[in-house]
Amino acid sequence: MRHFPKPGRWLRRLALGAVLAALLVYATVAGVLWSVQRDLIYPGSRGLVKGSRERPAEVAEIRLGTADGETLRALWRPPAPGCGVVVSFHGNASQPERPAARFVRDPWQRHGWGLLAVAYRGYPGSTGRPSEAGLIADGLAAVAEVERRVPGAPVLLHGHSLGTAVAVAVAAERPHLGLYLEAPFASMTAMARLRFPAIPAFLLRDPWRSDLRIAGVAGPIVIVHGGADPVVPLSQGERLARAAPNGTRFIVVEGDHVSLLGREDGPAEALFRAAMPPGCKAG
Fold it and tell me: Which of 41, 57, 86, 209 has the fewest CB atoms lying closer than 10 Å?
């Protein structure tokens, strides 16, 4: 005569099996995300970049070295005598040509600003592989290159999206004129929680804690965010602005993650120009 398990024991075994299967699926998903997270954060390192490599005629393509031995492709235009330089850090799927085309035009051109925009390590034209520490090293190398080419020139740090995290990190370490941030996030940890709420934050290799770094940043700060940004929610810009020093200007404009670019250039340029020491001979 055959014996069958009691219903209670069978149900417990079934429940245990379901829990183990769910844990296995969860661990598999978490492991995949852990292994590919830098591909997601830095898609340009896999060639997934938007925009043209055609550089504006006003800028020169240069190469600069980092402290850890990488070589970066960069675009450079010197400032007018005594004027400032915008050091611009692009978004995670962009290239330096986009900010270069913008910052060599008015109002920046009219007031003598120079430009340096770098392609991050691992992005087209640059060596290495991206990481938080690596991109910060790239940012520090960019500022050092300006100091080498134009000693004493005021440096305005600009960033869009991922580039805002680079700009904030550099601003926390090096002297600068000011900080101009468009569509910033408070931290990559916060962004990961928005996109993958079930995955533990400690699995994130590059937390990019701009919210912690910005508190000690000196100089005027302008933060601009699009009210309809589907990539970095407006709440992220608001959170970063709350963490920033008193006097930070937080501006919400109509537009999304890309269409907001340059919308506040007129007032922002005037603000940063007013913070420059006298001696700029533009025009």
Answer: 57
